[in-house]
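Notebook B, p. 112. Complex prediction, attempt 2.
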Amino acid sequence: MTLEFEIINRYFKKNTNVPLGIGDDAALINKNKREFWAISQDTLNNDTHFSSDTPPVELGWKALAVNVSDIYAMGGKPNYALLSISLNQHNEKWLKGFSQGLHACAKKYGVEIIGGDTTRGATSISITIIGSVFKKNVLKRDAAKVEDDIWVTGKIGLAAIGLDCVKKKIAMKDGLKKTFIEYLNKPQPSNIYSLQAKKLFHSAIDISDGLIADLSHILKSSGVSAEIFSNQLPVHPWTKKNEAYHYALYGGDDYQLILTAAQKNRSQIELLAKQEKIKLTCIGKITNGKKLKVFDTHGIPLKNLNKGFLHFDK
Amino acid sequence: MTLEFEIINRYFKKNTNVPLGIGDDAALINKNKREFWAISQDTLNNDTHFSSDTPPVELGWKALAVNVSDIYAMGGKPNYALLSISLNQHNEKWLKGFSQGLHACAKKYGVEIIGGDTTRGATSISITIIGSVFKKNVLKRDAAKVEDDIWVTGKIGLAAIGLDCVKKKIAMKDGLKKTFIEYLNKPQPSNIYSLQAKKLFHSAIDISDGLIADLSHILKSSGVSAEIFSNQLPVHPWTKKNEAYHYALYGGDDYQLILTAAQKNRSQIELLAKQEKIKLTCIGKITNGKKLKVFDTHGIPLKNLNKGFLHFDK
């Protein structure tokens, strides 16, 4: 578990009367007999989650997209968002770009911006998202079952490659670099709402800190373990060619989903995903083992798994 | 109007399908036939809203209290809050103090903390609050009527005196200084829910940027003007003695409410306020004039009214 979770659990988690409080992708409160409101708040800070060079239009997109991802991870669909934006100075051009990106993302994912607040401070964007989810379709972290398939949406590890391109840690052709940086700056959460309407999955989480780190949350909450096969990971051809699977295993910022589902649902999931044009890949399975096992492309278990991004280094 | 509102209106306000979107103390979405959910998000940033010296226990209190105030300003009562906290480093002592203050405030105002998020970045706290309000009791900014009395809760201008004490701009005895700084760091929003259950008021706003600045929002939204009498303002004896009424007129951070109500409700308001132990003071009235008039303690209108705190200086 990352230190962030320790902090939240130690200092801020208390017993509540809501159906689901701190500790999942979103909190749940009652909406009506059949539905919950799912509510989540995520913050992006300058120099931690983006650089000053990040184009504001992409930042506006990303700030909302990372929140949309939390609602999808609960099996819900997003409805409303509130925005709190801190800026060191009033920058008309920046604000214009940011709002364009934000509204484009809002339009794509069907979100209405219903509240806003601007303050002076280090550049930071905090968005609260409110979505609705049918009670019977809720996906929590603690419901993975032994023998479940483990699925991921979209492609993973591309944002982390993009980040290394931005940081000039790796070099590649401009066209390819642009692709990866776009995955970093303009994540495209996968909408699994139509699939979950058929209650195909048991549990889910979105990948913000990296596949292994976020999968570990499911495993810990569900009291299970898993086996992951690197050669099944939905990666970019560059990753395969360079055998750079660590990006897919440990890289953050994907904002794709990890889902677990009973094996008997496999063909139905594949069929529906094809119909709905959602990329879904089975990457392993839930086990009753003691330890998460990740097999490299030669079928050899990796040693010393990295647990992903920490928000606070001790 | 402050520049903050211009920014929000220009870049982030769009038509929505919710009962109330951007532009009031909280947004409203439907809860059930009789009630709305009122939702608001407020951020406090280091060096803008608090200093690094602010005791974390008081900051934890304040971060939630300023949001509670927004719900009261809608005529509602607070239910839930989500917390997003950015810190430059993991500081166990700070977190412990902050969480103590936060939970103490949550307990006092009946709020459950249902979501949380910590990230690395410049110290900043963004809280989203969710409250419920009966549709018939909603207090908006745009419903002040000509001839309404203007009321304020509690005492005003004390937090701004506290801020000048912290900044060493004014000097006074330690005991008095402590009092004012406590008003700054530990605001105590006034709960008018029991009064509004009888639908006594027309409109409301909370005082975050200063009496004149925030009253101006009501006036602009309602298309009315007002007359305010300095000698009626509920101020501290120090303010009277030093004729320092500017603190009460322009000082921010009070987190008390400005309310307007028909004159015919005056005696009922006074009676109920006494029963409920809520301090309420009539400070002036709504007019159909062109311009807000503020009379000094000698009955002379002030010239060149300051419009209060701007989050962004142009």
